[in-house]
Amino acid sequence: MRVPEHHYRSSHAASALVLVGTTGIVLGMLLAPDTLWLQLHLSRLGEHGHLSAALFNASLVVAAICLMTMGILVRKDMYGIDMPRGAELIRNWFISIAFCWIGLAVFTYDQHPHIHDFFGYGEFTLLCSLMFFLKNISDAFSDRTHYIGYIAVLTTGLLMAVYHLTHSISLLSVEMYGLVYAYAWFLSLTNDISRQRRHF
Question: Are 104 and 43 in contact (CB under 8 A)?
């Protein structure tokens, strides 16, 4: 049975996530009162209560809602293509990452550095773990999605280690590199499901 295009909701949620997240970062960069964030990290864009910080943090919360929605719809779509193995675990993993994003927005680094770091490294660990173990969790996704995840985990993990051990690169560069791969992975994962639903 051919499923109408409007049923491809998980891919819509992924696209909305990328759009909202990118818009928030760009607005934060353009409206930031200084350029210190270039030497530090993305979290700097959400500090000190400026308009740019409010927009950046609000976009992070909205992106988190998009990620929660994506997780719920990925689960539903996996059942829709009769490949439910791991669906609940993947949904719960995405929701946990989304809560970390909300934590990052609410507990800004300048006010609550330790709590902010907990959520920051928490979402990094959760996302990398899901990328790395996805093939063991479910057989619903393509080799392309798995390769993107493996490359993201290995290279971003290496860059993070270089940052902490040598400080020869900025945390911002690690974050931006990982963010691009995360967006690509979200889009690839949901596109896999959409493509299968067309022929189901």
Answer: yes
Measured in degrees and rounded to the nearest 5, phi and psi for residue 141 equal -120, 155
Domain count, the chain: 1
Report whether 148 contacts 186 (CB < 8 A): no
Q: Write out 61-117 in H/E/C secondary structure.
A: HHHHHHHHHHHHHHHHHHHHCCCCCCHHHHHHHHHHHHHHHHHHHHCCCCCCHHHHH
Cα 21 to Cα 31, 38, 51, 78, 154: the distances in Å are 16, 18, 16, 25, 23
Q: What radius of gyration, in Å, describes the C-alpha atoms of the chain?
A: 17
For residues 108 and 122, give the distance between their C-alpha atoms in angstroms, rounded to a whole number: 15
Sign of CA pseudo-dihedral 125, 128, 132, 134:
positive
Cα dihedral across residues 110, 111, 115, 120: positive or negative: negative
Q: Which domain holds residue 44?
A: 5-198
Query: Do the Cβ atoms of 40 and 6 come closer than 8 Å?
Result: no
At 13, list the tokens.
Answer: 């949620």
Gap between the terminal Cα atoms of the chain: 6
For residue range 46-87, list pLDDT tens digits in order.
Answer: 787 788 889 989 999 999 999 999 999 999 998 888 888 899
Q: What is the pLDDT of residue 2?
A: 43
